[in-house]
Every structure is written in structure tokens, then in C-alpha cells.
Amino acid sequence: MWRGTSDSSAGIYGVILNDGSFYAVYSAKDNRDMIAGVVAGTGQASNGSFTVQDAVDINFNGSGVNMVSISASYFAKSSLSGVLTNKNLESFAFSTQYNPVYEQPANAALATGTYAGNALSPTGAQPAFMTLQANGTITGVVSNCSFSGIATPRGSVNVFNLSITFRGGSCMFGTDTVTGVGFYDIPNKQFYLAAPNATRSNGLFFQGTRP
Q1: For a pLDDT cut of 70, what percent of the chain falls above it?
Q2: Domain check: are 117 and 198 in the same one?
Q3: Strand, helix or coil for residue 110
Q4: Quick one: how far is CA 130 from the chain centroid?
Q5: Bridge partners, 204 (sequence order)
Q6: Span 101-124, mean pLDDT?
Q7: Residue 19 — very low, low, confident or very high, per pLDDT cuts 50/70/90?
Q8: How many domains would you assign to the chain?
Q9: What is the rounded distance in angstroms from the CA atom of residue 183 to the CA atom of residue 153?
Q10: Which of 97, 149, 157, 183 could make a disulfide contact with 138, Cβ separation 3.0–4.6 Å?
Q11: 129 with 142, same domain?
């Protein structure tokens, strides 16, 4: 896992998985407690360089969904820094440090409970509740819309693979399925998930706290 800042002082929190796929959450530049979007994609790592040509930036503050590229350099389990470039050729620099909490295997039994928080998408924020059971089963409600899914520990690292399907009606995602990753913050009893839909035209971020 990686944590750092951008040149606009936004907070950045991300994970790069062993297949090159990554998810990076960024905050508003003037409020690091306010999540502003998620960047997701798959990169290529080689000899200290990490490059991404087709990442998607799912913004929650009115900018919608846009394609971006990333060029970065890294020192394994130490630092990762680089530049993100959007479709308008605007560039944003970032710098992050490695967090070894990534090396603690995810455990659904430790994360069992009901989380209250907010679900974010490009259409805005809505109150949400999510319940995670010890077997990885997920159920929940966003506003008046129900969803269900599964969280599976990803090998020996502190990440869950996630798949969530919405149940239509007034759902912010209709009947879409979103897939991505989740992370349980043990000390703060908080669960985070970031998951785009299949076409990467929409995406979900959830942050919730359990008692």
C-alpha cells in the first residue's frame, strides 16, 4: 500500500497488486478527509519504472469519468512518485511512501460487522450501510437501494477482492455489478472499497465505520 500527496496537496492512498492492477483514492486538495475520486487501471512495472496508458479517473466532485495515463518511478517497498496526465494534457505530480500494513493478510472474520458511512459515485454521495459476514458475504443498502456481493481475501496481502451487484429500482447503479478491492483498517474499525463497473463508465467508493 502507498500513501502520500499530490502537488496540489491532495492526499493519495493506493494499492498496487501483483498483477499490475491498481486502485488509488485521492482527497479534495483543501480537505484530506473528503474523498474526491478514484483512479484505477493496470500498469507495467520494470526496472524501477511503473507506466499506465489506460487508467480511468472516476471523480466524485463533478468532473465525471476520464481516461488518464501515469508515468512513475519506484523503489520496491519504499517510495513511488510520478506524474498523472489527463485527456487535456494537464499533468499532476504525486509522491507516496510504502506502508507495510499491505503485508498483513486480509481476514474477513476480523472485519465482520455492519458499517455505516457514505457511498460515492460521479452522481454524488449517498448514505450507505454494508454488512460483511465471516464467510465474506456482503449485503447492504445505499439510500433505498439494496446490494449484495462477496469479499474474498487476496492471497497473503491485506486486500479483499470484491464483487457487488445492485438490485435495480432507485439504485445509483441500476442492476450493475462493480468489481474492485476492499481494505479493513483494524485500529479504526473502518472498511473501504473501490470498485468500477465493467465498462469503467461508473464506479463506487465506500467508507464506513462499525461499532
Answers
A1: 100
A2: yes
A3: helix
A4: 16
A5: 195
A6: 95
A7: very high
A8: 2
A9: 10
A10: 149
A11: yes
- Summarised one tens digit per residue, pLDDT across range 51-96 is 998 899 999 998 899 999 999 999 999 999 999 998 888 899 999 9
Q: How far apart are CA 201 and CA 56, in angstroms?
A: 9
Sequence letter at residue 22: F
Q: Which residues contact 87 (CB under 8 A, 6 or more apart)?
A: 66, 67, 68
The pLDDT assigned to 173 comes to 87
Q: Enumerate residues 6+ apart whose C-beta is below 8 A from 31.
A: none
> Nearest-CA neighbor of 16 among 98, 116, 110?
98
pLDDT at 182 over 90: yes
Determine the residue type at 14.
Answer: G
Residue 109, C-alpha cell as written in the block:
472474520
Say how far residue 180 (Cα) sits from the centre of its chain. Answer: 7
CATH of residue 136: 2.40.160.90
Residue 29: all three cell numbers together = 486538495
Cell of 55: 487508467
Mean pLDDT score, 9-37? 93
